[in-house]
Design brief:
The chain has 266 residues and is of the alpha+beta class. The protein has helices at 3-13, 18-24, 29-37, 44-54, 58-63, 71-78, 110-119, 123-126, 197-200, 241-265, and strands at 105-108, 131-132, 143-147, 161-166, 177-183, 187-196, 202-206, 215-218, 222-232. Helices cover 36% and strands 20% of the residues. A hairpin with an 8-residue loop joins β7 (202-206) and β8. The chain is elongated.
Length: 266
């Protein structure tokens, strides 16, 4: 458990003394000191108090080593964006709405992708993105469209626009389904996922193009997840030559069988 180190770190980052925090939480300073030094263990009521005071999920306060996080991760956490799956109700999505107060679909094109991993939670950044509507999508769900690059997801071609539905709880990511994942290091990636969060706290990312090997991604490296809904491309897909070749071979075999049957019937 990392509780004692976490509450000490968070208090110091806010520039507050033990007296300040103890007063705010209506507890004795000696009690708070005992929690921070690990000589006393908090009950459920105290855990709830600390969670509400710092705006961070209880699971994160207890199970996550906040001292190992980068300044950017800590900043996101303090702004209400819990980067861990536990306590995912604290995950906040910056979005835009139209004149009817209905949510837009924001477009993250190739140029915007470079800055999206840093600005995804900044309302000022999100509001400058182009927006549009797809009338056949549900108004009760949140969507965003990303332009993909490369050939790792062929036959979906390079430069296609892929639309995803926002995933609030990563525990519900389904195996062998495609998702757009916003990552800390690699930016926006489009992959087929294998959910290993409960077992190892990771996702395994697969490409449709078998030339690319799958790789693991810890949840601490993930910023957002969007479930694939559809894609738009200006390219006409190439014919499946391998499939056509197999079809020709099957037709040839059928003709040969028919010829043999005709000879046998003579």
């Amino acid at each position: 458990m990392y509780f004692k180190d976490n509450i000490k770190l968070l208090r110091k980052r806010k520039g507050r003394t033990q007296d300040d925090v103890a007063f705010a939480l209506e507890m004795k300073r000696s009690t708070l000191s005992g929690y921070e030094n690990g000589v006393a263990q908090p009950n459920l009521k105290a855990l709830i108090q600390f969670s509400e005071y710092y705006g961070i999920a209880i699971d994160t306060l207890v199970k996550a080593d906040l001292t190992s996080l980068s300044e950017n991760q800590l900043s996101q956490l303090e702004r209400g964006y819990d980067i861990y799956v536990k306590g995912s109700n604290l995950r906040v999505l910056a979005t835009t709405v139209d004149q009817n107060n209905e949510e837009n679909i924001e477009l993250v094109n190739e140029k915007a992708k470079a800055g999206y991993a840093a600005g995804y939670s900044d309302p000022d950044y999100i509001k400058i993105l182009p927006t549009f509507k797809l009338p056949f999508l549900s108004k009760q769900k949140k969507y965003r469209t990303f332009q993909i690059s490369g050939d790792s997801m062929l036959p979906i071609p390079d430069a296609s626009y892929v639309t995803g539905e926002f995933v609030q709880d990563w525990n519900y990511i389904r195996n062998q389904h495609a998702y757009i994942v916003v990552t800390k290091e690699d930016g926006v990636v489009f992959k087929v996922l294998e959910n290993k969060i409960k077992e190892s706290g990771k996702l395994i990312l697969h490409s449709l193009n078998t030339l690319y090997l799958p790789y693991e991604l810890p949840v601490s490296e993930i910023r957002e997840v969007w479930k694939f809904v559809n894609y738009i491309s200006s390219e006409v897909p190439e014919s499946n030559k391998e499939k056509d070749r197999l079809a020709d071979e099957v037709n040839q075999l059928k003709k040969q069988v028919q010829a043999i049957q005709m000879k046998l019937n003579l």
